[in-house]
Amino acid sequence: MSLKTLENVSYFRLNNEINIPVNGQIPLHKDHEALLAFFEENVRPNLKTFPTVAEKIAYLLEHDYIESDFIKKYSIAFITELSDWLYAQNFQFKSFMAAYKFYQQYALKTNDGEFYLENIEDRILMNALYFADGDTELAQSLADELIHQRYQPATPSFLNAGRSRRGELVSCFLIQATDDMNSIGRSVNSALQLSRIGGGVGINLSNLREAGAPIKGIENAASGVVPVMKLYEDSFSYSNQLGQRQGAGVTYLSVFHPDIMAFLSTKKENADEKIRVKTLSLGVTVPDKYYELVRENADMFLFSPYDVERIYGKPFSYIDITAEYDNLLANNDVKKYRIRARDLEQEIAKLQQESGYPYIINIDVANKANPINGKIIMSNLCSEILQVQSPSELNEDQTYKTLGTDISCNLGSTNVVNLMQSPNFEKSIDSMVKALTFVTDHSDIDAVPTIKNGNRKAHTIGLGAMGLHSYFAKHHIAYGSPESIEFTDIYFMLLNFYTLKSSMNFARKTGQTFDDFDKSAYADGTYFEQYIEDKQLSDKVATLFEGIHIPTAEDWRELRQNVMTHGLYHQNRLAVAPNGSISYINDVSASIHPITQRIEERQEKKTGKIYYPARDLATDTIPYYTSAYDMDMRRVIDVYAAATKHVDQGLSMTLFLRSEMPVGLYEWKTDTKQTTRDLNILRNYAHHKGVKSIYYIRTFTDNGDEVGANQCESCVI
C-alpha cells in the first residue's frame, strides 16, 4: 500500500457521521473514531521508518530532503536526545481535521509522493533545530513550545524549515510604485519575483497619476491605475510556483485618489472584461477626513497625485490628507475632482456586499498609534501588516538613485488556550521572539532590493494569537462580554511587554537597534506613558491569569529605562493574521475572531466535505460557541479594539453578517434584510473604536453561500 493506492478507507465516512444527529445529540465520538481510523489506515502503513534517528537523518541528507548546514551545528547525540524527548511527550491530535491537515499539507513525503517521511514530532524537531541555529538550549525550548502547541510558526516557516527544496520562510510582501514608468515596470518585475518565491504581495498604487492627467505636458495622456492593476493580475497568474498555487496580490488605493470609483468598479460582477480584475484583491486607505466628510454629508474633493507630488515634493501616499485637505482645496495649482462623500461610501458598502472587498485601512488611526519615525502607507494581503516605508528614486536604466524600503513579514501565533497553561509565560514568549528573529535575520530577498533593504534596517517580526474564542468557551465566557474584553486587553498587554523585553535584550546583546530607533517614541520613553499604572483586574479575569505575572507600573518603568538605554532590535513585533488551516492543526479557533459554525463544514478539493467540531465542544460549552454570523459585530470590534491598543502593527479583522439578519440583533434595524447602511455603521464604529483595519466582509446568504469568503493563503494556510 502507498498514499497513491489508498482504498476502502473509513475515516471520511466516520468523520461525516458527525453531521448526522443521533437522538438529537451530536455524535462527537465519530470524529475520534475517524482520527483513529486515519492513523490505522493511512499514516502507519505509509510512514517510512528507520531503526535509529541517526539513520533517518543520514537518509534525509543523502537523498537531499533536508539541508546539511543546520544539522552540522548539532551532535547526532543531541538530535537523538531531542527527538526521543519529543516522542516521549505523547502528542495526540484532538480531531480528525487536525491530523488530516498536517499529513496532507505539512508532513514531508518521498519524492514520488508514495510515503510519509515525518510525523509531527519530526517536523517540530526540524523547526526547533533550524530556528535555534545551533543553540541547544533554545532548540530544547522551541521543541517544548511547539510540541505543546503554545507556539505555531506561520505556514511558510513551519512547512519549509530545514528542507532542501523549499520556498522562503516569510509570509508576505509589501511594495509600492511611484509615479513614473520605470517604477511601475520595476514593481511589476518585483511582483513576479515575489510571487515566484511564495507568499502574497501587497502593492500601493496611490502615488500613480490619475486617468486623464498630463504626461510630459500632453493633456489627458495618462491611463490611470486600472491598466496597471491588470498588469499585476496577469503577473500573479503567470508567476504561480510551477502551477502549485495561484499567485496572490492586493492593490491599495487612497479614497482621495481620483481613480477611486474606477478602482472599485474592477470588482463589480457586471464589470466590463477590459477592466475587471478576477483574482486581484482590493484595499483602500481611508484617512480620518473621509469619515468627517461622510458624517457631514458633504462634498469631498479628490486630488491629482501628479500635482500633489509636484507641489509637495513627495509622493501622494506620504501626504497627510487630513492635515492638508484645506490647503489642497485652496491651492489652485492642484487639480481637483468633486464627488459626494456618501456616494463613495455607498459604493464601498455595495461592493462589500457583492464581493467582500475592499479591505479598509484606517490609515490615520494606524499612523497616530505608530511609535516609529516615518509613515505607514498601506498594508498586506491580509491587512495585519502596518509598517513604515520610504519611496525609491530610479534612474532611467532602472537602477536606484535612492533605495527605498519595502516590507517582508514573517509571522507566528501564540495559541491562547495552551499558552495560558505555560509553566513560564515570559520564557515562552522569549523563545518565540528568537525563532521569529532567526527568520528575519536569515531572509535575504536579493531579487527585490527594496524588500531586502527594509528587512535589513527594521528586523521586523509579527507575533499574534489564535484560539481566543476556544479559550472563552472553555472558561464559559461569552465572546464580546466585558470579561472577554478585559481578558483580551491583559493578554495582549502581556505579549507587548514580553516581546518588548525580548527585543531590548536582543539589542543589548548584539549592540544593534532597528534603523532610526533614536527617532522613535520608544527612544524618548513617551510610548510607555500609557502603561505606567497598575492594572485592576476583575475577580474572574484575575483567576484566569493566576500564576502569570502581570507587569506592574514599576515593571513598565524599569522596561522603559532599559529600552531607552539599550534600544530595541525589532522595529515591529506584533501582528494578528487570520491563520486558518494552521489553527486546525492546533485544534483551536482561527485567529481572535469568533467561530462561524460549531461543527464547521470544510470542502476539501479531492475528498469532499470534512467536519471539524469546535475545541472542547460539549454540553457546557455550546452556549458560549455562538456563531459569528449570529453575533453583533460591534462585540467583535470591541474585542479587536482591546487587542489593538497593544499591537504595534494590525489585526486581520473580518466582519461576519447574514443577508437575512437575526431579529433584534441591531437596534437601528426595522427589518432583517442586510443593507449598505449596516456596513456603513459598522465601519464607522470600528473607526471610532480605534480599529486600524478591516479585512473581508463575509456575508452568509439565504442559499447557504458565503460572499467574501476567499482566504489569504499566505497567512491563512
Automatic annotation (TrEMBL):
Encoding gene, per UniProt annotation: nrdE
Coiled coil: 327-354
Name of the protein in question: Ribonucleoside-diphosphate reductase
GO biological process, one term: deoxyribonucleotide biosynthetic process
Keyword Coiled coil (UniProt): yes
Molecular-function GO terms, alphabetical: ATP binding; ribonucleoside-diphosphate reductase activity, thioredoxin disulfide as acceptor
Domain Ribonucleotide reductase large subunit: 556-578
Pfam families, per the entry: Ribonuc_red_lgC, Ribonuc_red_lgN, RNR_N
Catalytic activity: a 2'-deoxyribonucleoside 5'-diphosphate + [thioredoxin]-disulfide + H2O = a ribonucleoside 5'-diphosphate + [thioredoxin]-dithiol
UniProtKB keywords: Allosteric enzyme, ATP-binding, Coiled coil, Deoxyribonucleotide synthesis, Disulfide bond, Nucleotide-binding, Oxidoreductase
Organism: Pseudolactococcus raffinolactis
Family indicated by similarity: Belongs to the ribonucleoside diphosphate reductase large chain family.
Enzyme nomenclature, EC number: 1.17.4.1
Any one GO cellular component localisation term in the record: ribonucleoside-diphosphate reductase complex
InterPro entries the record matches: NrdE_NrdA_C, RNR_1b_NrdE, RNR_lg_C, RNR_lsu_N, RNR_N, RNR_R1-su_N, Rrm1
Function text: Provides the precursors necessary for DNA synthesis. Catalyzes the biosynthesis of deoxyribonucleotides from the corresponding ribonucleotides.
